[in-house]
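Protein chain data
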Amino acid sequence: MAGERLSRGDLLLLVAVLAVFGIAVSGYLAWQWYASESASWCDLSSYLNCTKVRDSPWAAVAGIPTAFVGVGGFGILLAFAMLALRGTERIGQWSVDGGLLAFAIVGALTGLGLTFVEIFVIQAICILCVIGFALDLGILGIAWTLSGSVRTSPA
C-alpha cells in the first residue's frame, strides 16, 4: 500500500464526505443560534467559548445566522463533488474541477476571515467553527490536487 495514491473517485468521495460533515456542523451551529441556549456544550473556557461567539453581533446578519453561509457553501461543494463523481466535466463553459476549486477557495477565505473576527474582535474561539474551517481547508487541498494545480512525480 505504501506509495499508492488515492484515485480521482476516492478524492471526490472524500470531498463529498467532508462536505456532508461541514453541512452537519454548520447546520448544528445554525440550530444552536436559533435555540439560544444559555450555554453551549463546547464552552471549554472563557476563550474557547462557542456561546460567546454565538451571542456576538457577528453571528448573524439581518437575523439570519452566518452558519447558513456554511450550510450553503458546503452544499455547493457537495454538489460539485457529486457532479464530478457522476462523470460531469463541465457546467456550461466552466469545468467542474475549477468550480470545486473556486468555491473551496471562497470557503477557506470566508473561514479565515471569520476566524480572524473570532480571535481579534470577539476574542473567543468557537470549536465547532474551527472544525468547519478545518473541513474547508481539507476540501481546498483536495480540490487543488484535483484541479491539476499540484503536479507530483510518480513514486
The chain has one domain: 13-36+43-146. Residues 97 and 147 are 5 Å apart (CA to CA).
